[in-house]
Amino acid sequence: MATYAFVLLAVLAVASALAMVLNKNTVNSALFLVLNLMSVAGLYLLLHAQFLAIIQILVYAGAIMVLFLFVIMLLNVDEEESLFDKFRAIYLVAFLLGVVVFGQIVYSLGGVTDLLPEISADMAYVGTVEAVGEVLYTTYLMPFEMTAILLTAAVVGALMIAQYKVKTSDQEE
Amino acid sequence: MAEAEVNSYVVLGAALFMLLNSAAICVYAERRIASFIQNRIGPNRVGPLGLFQPLADVVKLLLKEDVTPVQGFRTIHTIAPMIPVVTALLTVAVIPFGDGIYVTDINAGVLYLLAAASLGVYGVTLAGWASNSKYSLLGGLRAAAQMVSYELPLGMALASVVIFVGSLSVVDVAVAQENWWFVFLNPLGAVIFIIAAFAESNRTPFDLVEAEQELVGGFHTEYSSMKFGMFFLAEYMHVVINSMLITTFFFGSYHLPFAGYWLPEMSTTAKAILDITVFTGKTAFFIFLFIWVRWTIPRFKFNQVMSLGWSRLLPLSILNFIVIAAILFAINA
Amino acid sequence: MIGIDWYLALSAVLFIIGVIGVLIRRNAIVILMCVELMLNSVNISLIAFASHHGDITGQVLVFFVLAVAAAEAVIGLAIILAIFRNNLSIDITKVNLLRW
């Protein structure tokens, strides 16, 4: 059962990722990314990480991607011309680079595949909100607080960059 | 944690059946109450007291021509109306309707509800975009901005409930209100939650998404026939769902007021019947509140909606959360 | 039961798709989305390791990655908005004022 679910979700994730990269239309790309994020959330559920699966949907699909869609619609940009109508050298380079990195990863994976553990039996308790929260607020309290500062800084910075009227020069004079 | 006493598939089937039908009942109730408020008669021709009016509406929607804009995006135009219906149906999975009567109890139920609510925005936004019309696009953009903004006060109000319970399971939230409803312990949170719930379901005074004086029909300008019917269905299902959420989180779920102090022991069947009746009654009252507000209060301007959300409700909800957390800490310490 | 190597392989495939996307696309928003895809693929392998070792640390790390991804998306979109306001295009090959 879990095997079929994994195969289904994995195929869905890869297919939607490919469709996202190859689609000409930006809104379609964003929607395929949403599909990809949801299938990844399903994979998290298979790995007994319920809390992160829900957070993934809540934060990624519900907030970040809506922001992306909002900006895409707001700018209403033209579609870029088709990807493959004109061969460009960079496609070849990108593809080769991709293949090389993939080969590297698979090679290093193959080297350690016997050493990897089986799925741990007590994972059913580990993925819950209580477990994640407890570690987050004790061992990792400091990084957690720094995340808050990071997010605040990001919001302020985004406001400064995207503000329509940056401080005009005659105010300084 | 209360054990599930009724088979969850039975609960699921009954809940989905009631939710789909409640949309039809809401349409009828909305038209009758609106006409009562505006001192007119309202629909009274189809069947006794006009009770079959929703049926007639559905038949009319089904028989209409289904128009798709030529310059639009056909696939997304077709998918978009289904999204809000699906996300509305998703939410019943974690709501407890009575003592031990729920579909499932997941340990992040409150987050699950928020996640399902946050996905609903895609329907309206994509509908506005796929129609390839200025009015629709404006409606869709407004929907995206408004729903993302009001999710924050909604989440903070829920967080201020969750710290009373100490658990993110919705069933635990319901059980914790046996003696004291959270509206008595956390009145500000309740008000913020109700306002944010109105904004999330795009109802007046926050229905700028479809403001007909400015935007013709808003995001559903280009929709007709059953695709429009889906949006219509979704709107009323969100009204019902949000009424259920208000009931569950602040108005004692299936408990009578202070039930723990005076309610005698009852047999399981009698308790189940009482619980479901109480829950349905409270939900019906909040549906009435939604309709009442719609026909009483005029619509905000968009800048007012935004400033209410970001510079009033959000700071207020954060402050409320901090104060409650401090008081609870002082009591428990 | 699916072994951990399958999750890692899936993570690698998604990561490579993200890398190729960043290299071949010219639309700045799509490039940003490809970066999100890469972060996401890393999250898969982190969670796979976390659940196979029975150690919660991987999940906490994913939580931080999510927060950083949110911050990155916000800043990235703000920069794209600013670029669009200046030269009415988000094609990265046309953003060449600082190139020489």
Structure, described:
The complex is a heterotrimer of chains A (173), B (333) and C (100). By secondary structure, chain A is an all-alpha fold. Chain A has one domain: Four Helix Bundle (Hemerythrin (Met), subunit A). Helices cover 76% and strands 0% of the residues of chain A. In chain A, helix 2 runs antiparallel to helix 3. The mean pLDDT of chain A is 79. In chain B, helix 2 packs across helix 12 and helix 4 packs parallel to helix 12. Helix content of chain B is 68%, strand content 0%. With 333 residues, chain B is an all-alpha fold. The model of chain B has no long low-confidence stretch (mean pLDDT 83). Chain B has one domain. Chain C is mainly α and 100 residues long. The termini of chain C are far apart. Chains in contact: A-B, A-C. The interface between A and C is large, with 81 and 70 residues.
Number of domains of chain C: 1
What share of the residues of chain C lie within helices?
over 70%
Radius of gyration of chain C in whole Å, from Cα? 17 Å
Taken together, the total number of domains of chain B comes to 1
The number of helices of chain C is: 3
What is the overall shape of chain B? globular
Enumerate how many helices of chain B there are, as a single number. 15
Low-confidence stretches of chain B: none
User: Largest interface, per-chain counts?
Assistant: A-C, 81 and 70 residues
- Strand fraction of chain B equals under 5%
Largest sheet of chain C: none
Instruction: Output the CATH topology of chain C.
Output: Helix Hairpins
Q: Any low-confidence stretches of chain C, pLDDT <50, length ≥5?
A: none
Principal-axes shape call of chain C: elongated
* Quantity of strands of chain C, as a count: 0
Strand/helix succession of chain B: HHHHHHHHHHHHHHH
Number of strands of chain B: 0
Radius of gyration of chain B: 20 Å
Oligomer: heterotrimer
